[in-house]
Design brief:
Strand 1 and strand 2 form a beta hairpin. The longest helix is centred in the middle third of the chain and has 18 residues. This protein folds into 2 domains: 220 residues, Rossmann fold (3-Layer(aba) Sandwich); 88 residues, no CATH class. The strands form 4 sheets. The chain has a 6-stranded mixed sheet with strand order 6-7-8-3-9-10, sandwiched between helices. The chain starts with 5 loop residues before the first strand and ends with a strand. With 320 residues, the chain is α+β, with helices and mostly antiparallel strands. Helix content is 28%, strand content 35%. It has 9 helices and 17 strands. Bound molecules: adenosine-5'-triphosphate (ATP). The site of adenosine-5'-triphosphate has 12 residues, from strand 2 and helix 1.
Amino acid sequence: MTSIPLQTNDLRKAYGATLAANDVSLLVPAGRTLALLGPSGCGKSTALRLIAGLERPDAGRVRLGERDVTTLPPEARHLGLVFQDYALFPHLSVLGNVAYGPRARGARRAEAERQARDALALVGLADLAGRRVTELSGGQQQRVALARALAPRPGVLLLDEPLSNLDEQLRHRLREDLRSLFRTAGVTALLVTHDQREALAVADDVALMRAGRVVQSGVAADVFARPATAWAAAFLGHRNLLPETGGQVRLVPEDALQLGDGDAAPVRARVRTDTGETLTVDAPVGALTLDLSAREAAGVGNTLRLRVLPERTVLLPDDR
Ligand SMILES: Nc1ncnc2c1ncn2[C@@H]1O[C@H](COP(=O)(O)OP(=O)(O)OP(=O)(O)O)[C@@H](O)[C@H]1O
């Protein structure tokens, strides 16, 4: 598949007094996956709709490869779209659903079906081509929706919370599948999600949005390891943000903590989780929350030996 870069420059969209997209600039290099991540209402879907051409921006540009597509209608942009409600055609077979896109773009039936079979093979559903979509599980339907978006060989794939209608276990499995699918297909993909674990599991890069703005972006693992502010750290799931003076907090990341070493810190609270226990301990730097595996937790009494590596902690501005 020929993939192309996706770029937006200063995209702006207001709904009345709400600035849903406030100078949103994104770059997804060819063949990479970017997760647009942020809490509910921060403007992720608005940004995606502006890129798809489902909404017109008040200002800013959208580029796909060499083309400026800002004023083009959605069908002229040649994008693949996957939404949370997959909206498959219930009266068509799996093959019919997936061949629909290539057919709509003018491919002859045989060619459309060949492209559809290729796309079904990519998502691991080659064997179910003849089934009715009403006879599929939720996860299989979501794969059909993916195949349908991939079949016309779009330069860029846009996905809006594609896994959010699935149960936790299936979501977990499909995350892995999505990642390897994007790699295999070599497609440029923009994934909208509010789930930081999903972003980290699926995407190469992350752009973090808050109240219409992109507040931090970069390689996914770097953004997670080095949040720029207290708000970003908290949203990304860091538990240990200790108040400091001067409008700052000290982030104590996981890799700053060494267990079984250092001073004995009193254990103040412990709560059982699905994988072990969450402990709150009174360390000299402040109260810390730790997730322990069942095995680690089994050896813990009233105190826990714990060393905090000061050079791995980070001072961040508190913008919450
Ligand atoms: N058509 C619309 N008319 C008026 N306001 C809108 C419209 N669409 C979105 N908004 C507002 O714009 C802001 C951004 O909405 P958007 O749907 O882009 O957020 P989101 O990050 O995708 O949220 P979610 O994760 O809940 O879907 C919100 O305050 C929302 O209420």
